[in-house]
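== Sequence entry ==
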Amino acid sequence: MAHKYSLAHLTVLGWSPVEMAYNAALIGYDYISIRNINMGVKGERDFSIPIGGERYKALKEAIDETGIAIHDIELARVVDGVDVKSYEQAFESGASLGAKGVISSVWTNNKDYYTEQFAALCDLAAQYGLKVNLEFVTWASVWNLDGALELLNTVKRPNARLMVDTLHTWRSKVSVAELAACPKELFDMAHICDGPAEIPARDDKEALIYTGRDARYYVGEGAINIADMVKAMRPDTVLSIELPHLARVEKYGYTEHARRCLATAKEYLKNNGAE
């Protein structure tokens, strides 16, 4: 079974969701993964899409014209001071445009709080038919596979899934065997990219964040065993290419960078028996 590919917003953060839809369709992606939840991060634009607004109408038109679909929306963080109910408008508009899931991650060390909030997040998403893909991020509070599985096993929500990012998986030293041991029904989507062999210390957040947000490698270019990670998941797992690289965007422009992301991923996975 050939994998379906999505273009993650962080790869082309200067594009609006409308630009993503038109350009991703031309390049050959199957889906787009949009960041329609504004996190207030420096340098990021507000891509919220209220139902009925001009952004919503333009994105719906782009989807209808191109046939491309939204696979997932992000990022529904579980973090101190943010009630997950505040994400409802984003869930409603995303689902009405065809999104299948939402990405979440945990950014507070208060275990009781994040367990309660993640359960509530799953329940809210379920009202809109959305799966919740829990991502472990190496500079977040739930930062490895064990922590993510513990949370999923605690809340036991039928729409909760495990989302593997190949960079974070490599940097949290998760083995392919550990991934293969996970229940296959937990996999719905994954973020793929490559990265350097060196793994920064967990307390070196600056180094972890730099690669994660500014300098990920094309698939097959670095040290990560992406092919075996992909083989450990369900064969129909959607592969969302999250590959921000500021220097390459400066060199090639967003369109060529996004094209190279897809072309290198397909070539690598085919050559390594994972496609």
Summary: The CA atoms of residues 180 and 194 lie 19 Å apart. The chain is about 40% helix and 15% strand.
